[in-house]
Design goal:
Two copies of one chain form a homodimer. The first copy, chain A, contains eleven helices and eleven strands. Chain A has 344 residues and is α/β, with parallel strands linked by helices. In chain A, α7 links the parallel β7 and β8.
C-alpha cells in the first residue's frame, strides 16, 4: 500500500461545526484506509464529539487550537492575528509538510488569503482559483473560478483553463476534457473586455482541448467539462444553479402536497424524484479545491454536512496519488519567474 | 376609450417568423382592443399567414419591407446598410412618431444598436438596459441589465436602479419595490470593482428603496423586486435560470418515464407539475423592454411563440398609459446634459 494521505481538517469551520466536521472525519477514516486525518479545533468540543464514535484511532488525531475565525471577519486581519486558529494552524501544517492537505467549511476569504500567504503558490501561478465540480445532466463539470478572483485578468483565465484540464483528466478521469470559456454568446467576438481578450489566448493553447464559448443555459446540460470564468460570473453561475434547484424542489413539493391526487402521485414518484434531486445536489462531489498552491487546500460549503466533509477528505487521496501539483508544474505553460515559490 | 397604442411588430424576427409573429399580432388585436399593430416584413409571406385568420382589419396593418437582418449579422453594419429591413423600418416608424412601440424577436444586437441610433435615448440616460421580468417563487422580478452593457459603469447601474424601480411600481404594480444590487456576498464591501463603487451610490439615492446586496441563490426565491447588475452577470443569471429550469423539467420527465410506477405517479401529478413548470416559464411575462429610449422597444426571446409576442405587444399598453418615459424624465436624478435627446 502506498503511504497515507495526511489531511488537516478544520473542526471549527461551517454552520454545523464541530459535530458534522468530526463525523465527516470519522466516516472518512472508516471508509478510506489511505487517509490519516488531524482535527484542528477546540480540544474539549472536538473530543466530546469524537467520544460518540468508534474508529481507527491510529489514523485520526486532534491538534488543539484556541481561536476560531468567524465567517464575517475581515480575512487578512484574521489570518495575521489569530495565529492559533484552526484555519491558520491547519494551513501552517501544510506549509511545513506535516500534512498534505487542509479541508475546511469555514470562511472562504480566510481560506483564500491564508492559502496564498501561508501555504504559498506554485512558482509561476498568478492566482489560485476555487474550482468546484458541479453536477450536470451529462456528468460533473469543473467551474473555475468560483469566488477567489473577482476582477480577473486574461492571463489568469489562461492558467485556470490549463489547471482545470489537468484536474479533470486526472482526478475525474475525463479524457481530453472539453474546455470552454463562459460567455454571453457563442461567437468568438462576443462578450466583455475580459472574454474578448481571453478567447484568442485560449484558442492558441496547445495543451488543452478548447471548444470555444459556452453560454449559461448549456452549463446545466454539461456542454463542456471545464468552464473558465472570472469569480464574479462564476459565483453567479454556481449560486443560480443551487438557488434554482432548491426553489424547484420546494415548488414540486408544494405542488405535490396541494391535493390528495398530488399526494398519491408524489408517493409513487418519491423514489425516482428523490434520486433525481440528489443527483443535482451540491454535496455530491465534496468541496472546491483552491488550485495552484504548493499544497492542497479544499473549501466545502458553509452548510456542509458530514457527507460533504467526508467526500472532501477523500478527494485529497486522488489529488496526491495523481501528483496533480507536479503535473501543473510540468504541463502548464508557466512564465519562468526568477523568484522562488511564494510564501509570506 | 383612450387613444390606441400603436405597435410596430417585426414580422421577420425570431426562429418561427413570420408564422408565430403574425399569429401573436392577430391574438393581440383580438384580445386587447386598445392596440393597433403594424406588421413589418416581406409582403407575400406576411399576407399568406394573415390569410389564415379572422381579425379586426382596421387595427392590423402590413408595412412591406424587402430586407431581413439575420441573428448573427454584425449589428452596426446591419443597421447602417439594411435600410429596408423590418428592424430598421420598424424603429424608424417609432422615431417619426408613427408608432409608439417596436416589438421584435430578432437580433438583440441590432435591436440595441438600432434602438439607440434610430430611436434615440432620453436626455441624460447614459445606456439603455434590457430589463426582462423573470418569474420567482415570490412573483415577478425585474432583472436589469440582461445583455446590453457588458462593461457597465457605476453611474449606469445607478440609472438602471431608478428606471427599474419606476417600471416595477407602475407597470407591474409593486408598491415601493425593493431594489437590490447583485453581488457575491451580502456585506456592502463585497464584490468586484464595479459593485464596490456602485453600492454607496445606490445607498445614497432618495428615490428608490435600496435593500442592499442580493446573492444569486436568493433570486429564484424573489428576495428583491428589482435586481441591478452589469449585462455580463445579468446574462449569466437569466440564462442559468432558464437552463437549470429546462434541465430539471427534462430530468423529472425522464425519472417519470423510467418505470411503470413512475408513469402512474406522473399521470396523477401532471396537472400540478404542469402548472408549476409553466409558472416559471420565460414566456410568462412577454419580452424585455430596452428602457430609457424616447420610444418603447421590446425584445422577446429568439424562440418566442405567438403567446410571447402577444404578451409583448400588450405590455406596450401599460407602458404608454402609465407614461413611463415621462416618469423617467420627472423622477430620475438625470445629469442635465446640454445636448438634446440623442438621435443618430
Amino acid at each position: 500500500m502506498s503511504e497515507l494521505v495526511r489531511v488537516a481538517l478544520d473542526a471549527m469551520g461551517g454552520d454545523f461545526a464541530p459535530a458534522e466536521a468530526v463525523k465527516g472525519a470519522v466516516d472518512a477514516v472508516c471508509h478510506e484506509e489511505r487517509v490519516d486525518v488531524t482535527l484542528y479545533g477546540t480540544e474539549d468540543a472536538v473530543n466530546a464529539e469524537l467520544a460518540k464514535y468508534t474508529y481507527p484511532k491510529e489514523r485520526l488525531h486532534v491538534h488543539p487550537t484556541t481561536e476560531v475565525i468567524e465567517m464575517a471577519e475581515p480575512p487578512v486581519n484574521a489570518i495575521r492575528t489569530k495565529k492559533d486558529s484552526s484555519i491558520v494552524a491547519g494551513l501552517m501544517s501544510v506549509r511545513h509538510g506535516e500534512n498534505d492537505a487542509f479541508v475546511t467549511a469555514g470562511s472562504s476569504g480566510a481560506t483564500l488569503v491564508g492559502g496564498q500567504l501561508l501555504v504559498g503558490r506554485i512558482k509561476g501561478i498568478e492566482r489560485p482559483p476555487f474550482a468546484p465540480l458541479i453536477p450536470t445532466a451529462n456528468g460533473p463539470l469543473l467551474l473555475l473560478d468560483c469566488g477567489a478572483n473577482v476582477d480577473a485578468r486574461p492571463t489568469q483565465l489562461v492558467q485556470f483553463a490549463q489547471m482545470g484540464s489537468i484536474y479533470m483528466e486526472n482526478v475525474v478521469g475525463v479524457k481530453n476534457p472539453r474546455v470552454a470559456l463562459f460567455n454571453i454568446g457563442a461567437e468568438a467576438e462576443k462578450g466583455n473586455a475580459l472574454t474578448k481578450e481571453t478567447y484568442p489566448l485560449l484558442a492558441a493553447l496547445d495543451n488543452i482541448n478548447f471548444t470555444g464559448n459556452i453560454e449559461a443555459r448549456d452549463i446545466p446540460f454539461g456542454a463542456a467539462d471545464v468552464v473558465v470564468t472570472d469569480a464574479f460570473a462564476g459565483n453567479a453561475i454556481l449560486k443560480m444553479y443551487e438557488g434554482t434547484a432548491d426553489m424547484f424542489k420546494q415548488q414540486v413539493k408544494e405542488a405535490i402536497y396541494s391535493s390528495t391526487r398530488g399526494k398519491l402521485g408524489g408517493l409513487l414518484l418519491k423514489p425516482v424524484l428523490g434520486k433525481t434531486f440528489k443527483k443535482f445536489s451540491t454535496s455530491t462531489y465534496g468541496g472546491a479545491p483552491l488550485l495552484g498552491l504548493t499544497g492542497l487546500v479544499v473549501k466545502t460549503h458553509g452548510n456542509a454536512k458530514a457527507i460533504s466533509i467526508e467526500h472532501s477528505i477523500e478527494q485529497c487521496v486522488t489529488f496526491k496519488e495523481k501528483r496533480i501539483n507536479d503535473q501543473f508544474r510540468e504541463k502548464m505553460h508557466l512564465v519562468d519567474h526568477t523568484r522562488k515559490e511564494q510564501k509570506s
